[in-house]
């Protein structure tokens, strides 16, 4: 995948961020992402911590599990970042990129909880029942 520098932000524009380098892109069908986004599934772009930079605003955070923070705009509510403290990477919502078509999901995770209505999302991409196995 090409490695363009990407920018994005929340609905109201108070939060803005920059991504230097993409690690991977995937759909998550877990029930927590569903609740958090209000959508059927979330496409995420995974980036190394050092490749993600907030350039405007300060997000609010919700600890959705021990050691996990979901960061969002306190003004408009857009979910922006999923941060698992033990990981060297963070996930950023593809839907808040300025140019979401610049990235392409390559797989699905938590397909065991996927909704029927999401069957048409990347139907030919690999589906993992839960987390993606390491070094896949
Ligand atoms: Zn906002
Ligand atoms: Zn999820």
What does the oligomeric state look like here? Answer: single chain
| Helix/strand class | mainly beta
Strand content: 35-45%
Please write the CATH class name: Mainly Beta
How many separate helices? Answer: 1
Q: Ranges with pLDDT <50 over ≥5 residues?
A: none
Average residue-wise pLDDT: 94
At CATH level 2, the architecture is Beta Complex
Protein described:
By secondary structure, the protein is mostly beta strands. It has a single domain, classed as Metal Binding Protein, Guanine Nucleotide Exchange Factor, Chain A (Beta Complex), CATH 2.170.150.70. Helices cover 5% and strands 37% of the residues. It has one helix at residues 31-37, and strands at 6-9, 16-19, 24-28, 42-48, 52-56, 60-65, 68-72, 79-84, 89-93, 107-109. The radius of gyration is 14 Å and the shape is globular.
Give the SSE map:
Blueprint: E1 6-9, E2 16-19, E3 24-28, H1 31-37, E4 42-48, E5 52-56, E6 60-65, E7 68-72, E8 79-84, E9 89-93, E10 107-109
Parallel strand pairs: 3-10
Antiparallel strand pairs: 1-2, 2-5, 3-4, 4-9, 6-7, 7-8, 8-9
The protein binds zinc ion (ZN) (2 copies).
Residues 28, 30, 32-33, 110 line the site of one zinc ion.
